[in-house]
Amino acid sequence: MSNLIVESLHEAQLGLTALLENAVALSSIEQAACLLVKTLKESGQVFSCGNGGSMCDAMHFAEELSGRYRLDRRALAASSISDVAH
């Protein structure tokens, strides 16, 4: 069992290393972050969506924005588009 855990953690480490070395991916993440910040600063709202497990990720993302997360701050305008029937 411990080998499986170590292998899984090593796989995650390799994925993060590959991401950190991918300038195009990092630039895309930065562009997305800038768009989110701009949207919220202009009183816009962030919508997230997904299918299956990604729907849960979308809901969690919206909750992190609309909740307090790490700081005591105002809630940010965010909603997830989720309908479990689809």
Shape: extended
Q: DSSP helix count?
A: 3
> Terminal Cα separation, in Å?
36 Å
Largest sheet: 2 strands, parallel
Low-pLDDT parts are none
Give Rg in angstroms: 16 Å
Structure description:
β1, α3 and β2 form a beta-alpha-beta unit. This protein has a two-stranded parallel sheet with strand order 1-2. The chain folds into two domains: 42 residues, no CATH class; 42 residues, no CATH class. It is extended. It contains three helices and two strands. It is mostly helical and 86 residues long. The model has no long low-confidence stretch (mean pLDDT 92).
Summarize this, please?
The chain is 60% helix and 9% strand.
Structural features:
single chain, 86 residues, mainly alpha, 2 strands
